[in-house]
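Researcher: Here's a chain I'd like modeled. Treat it as a single chain, no partners, no ligands.
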Amino acid sequence: MKLWLVNKARQIDEDALVAQRLKRMSSIASKLSCHPTMKLTQMQDIAGCRAIVGSVNSVYAIAKAYGRSDIRHERVHVDDYIGHPKVSGYRSIHLVYRYRSDKKTTFNGLKVEVQLRSMSQHAWATAVETVGIFTKQALKSSQGERSWLRFFALMGDAMARREGTPGVPGMPDDPVLVREELRDLTHALDVEGHLKIFAEALKTPEKISTKDAHYFLLSLDPSAMKITVTGYKRDQLERADSAYLAAEKKAIERSARLDTVLVSVDTFALLKKAYPNYFLDTHRFIQAVNREIRPTSRRDNPAQRILPFPYFPLSYRQRQWNKLRSTKTGRFV
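Model: Modeled as a single isolated chain. Structure tokens:
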């Protein structure tokens, strides 16, 4: 499934970024505990692929290509969170399939998910996860401080408008009101300051020892502000999977706040782009925030608001002439 997505995505956008992940054990356990009657075969994102492309048009083009394809996996349903954003501000397209294979029958019947996002949508999701991890809030699940939840909903709405797609439910219809509230919350929460502190404090590896690694085990420890990355070659998937399960088990036994995931990308450099939340890379989101809160009109900028009476700036020559007349007549002009 990943190979098909890589080929199709790069036909549509040559800079498309594609990654594959396995569902975290902690996430599976959490979901099953919340839904005791749920079976593993009912969980729609036990594993999945993600494509990140430059524009919304490219996202829809890939989704349409999936609809026309003859892949043997059975399509279960499509969730268009771009046309119908979540109230949290989350936007993406999710394609859910039931896995079918003649070669690897072990996974037959399990559901897998394909996520399609634009760069803008990926930047938003990265920031939500980053803030959630370091403020110990489940913002990704719409749980946490109301101010942070409101900020991300407003930012999701502003980014949707900029991409020319439907806004987030419950947000003001007037974009100026969105911008004003967004600006107030950005300053009140010190969004840029927090995100920059997180990124600067994190100890990240510049390279890994395994050459030609294809699978990467990432383990983020927020309390120690450290991320560990272990690489595995294509023929070491079993070893990588065992290490992943051991890391998850260790975290559960110690009740540690470790965020661990096993992913597949072509290079270590692409790993940082596909999973910037693990490296706390939110620079793209910070740029988007600053762009959205920047004053764009007199109504938006207190320093340029229209005065209650007509005011026309005088040229230098006019000011000098008026000054000369006032000295001759004794009246201010």
